[in-house]
Amino acid sequence: MSYVPPADFAKKMIDAGEAKVFMSARDTLIRAYMAGAILALSAAFAVTVTVNTGEPLLGALLFPVGFCMLYLLGFDLLTGVFTLVPLALIDRRCGVTLRGMLRNWGLVFAGNFAGAFTVALFMAIIVTFGWSEAPNAVGEKIGHIGEGRTLGYAAHGAAGMLTLFVRAVMCNWMVSTGVVAAMMSTSVSGKIMAMWMPILLFFYMGFEHSIVNMFLFPAGLLLGGNFTIADYMIWNEIPTVIGNMVGGITFVGGVIYATHHKTRPELDRAPTHQPAPQAPAVAAE
Known about the structure:
Elements: H1 6-21, H2 25-53, H3 56-62, H4 64-72, H5 78-90, H6 98-128, H7 137-148, H8 151-154, H9 157-181, H10 188-204, H11 210-222, H12 229-261
Helix pairs in contact: 1-5, 1-12, 2-3, 2-4, 2-6, 2-7, 2-11, 3-10, 4-10, 5-6, 5-12, 6-11, 7-11, 9-10, 9-12, 11-12
C-alpha cells in the first residue's frame, strides 16, 4: 500500500529538516539553484500558456509540473525549508541549532535567487531576440506582472502591505502542503497527484510565492517594467518571504508536528470495577 499515515510522514518531515541543516554548503547551493531555475521555467511556461490560449486556468493547471520535477529530483525551495527545518529545531534533534537553521535558509535563498535570475535572463533574451527588438506578447505580459504586484500594493498603503502579507502566508500554506503531501505516498504517481492539487490552487489564486517572484520581477525589470528594484524588494519580495515563512511554520509544519508527532499520550486508566479473579482451569485428565 503506497499511503503513508500522518504519524509516519510527520517523522519524515522532521528527519528531512534535520538532514537539510547538516547538508554541506555546496550541496545546499546546488540543489537550491536548480530548484529556483526549474520553478522559474515552470512559471515562464505557465505565462506562455496563458498568453497563447487566453485561459489562465490552463496555465495554472500546467504550472505544477515544475514543482513536481524539482521535488522528485531532491532539490530545495525556500518555502519548503521554511516548513521542514524548524521542526528539527523544535524537536531538539542533536546538533540542530538556530544558527544552523538560519544558515540553511540563507543558502537556499541565495541559491533559489541565482537559479530564478538565470532563467529570467534567458527568457528576456528569448522574448526579445537578444534585445534586438521589442518584447513579444509573452515578454510584455511578464514585464507588466511586476507593476501590478508592486505599485498596485503600494497604491493601497498599509492595506496593500497587509494584503500582500496574507497572500504570502496563504501561498506557503498551500505550497508546503504540497511538500508534505508528497510524503504521504511511496509511489511516484501518488506523490505527483498529491503535490499537484495545492500547487494548482496557489498559482491560480494569485498568491505570492517568493521564488516565483524571484523570476517574474527581475525578468520584468529586464523587459522594461515600470517599477524599480526598491519597489520590488519593499513592496513584494521581503514581505513575501516573511509571509511564506509564517505560513509554512504555522499552518503546515507546526500543526502537523503538534497533532501527529507530539500528541498527548493516552492516560492508562484502570476500570472502576475489577472483575472477580477466576480460578485457574484444571486440565482434564
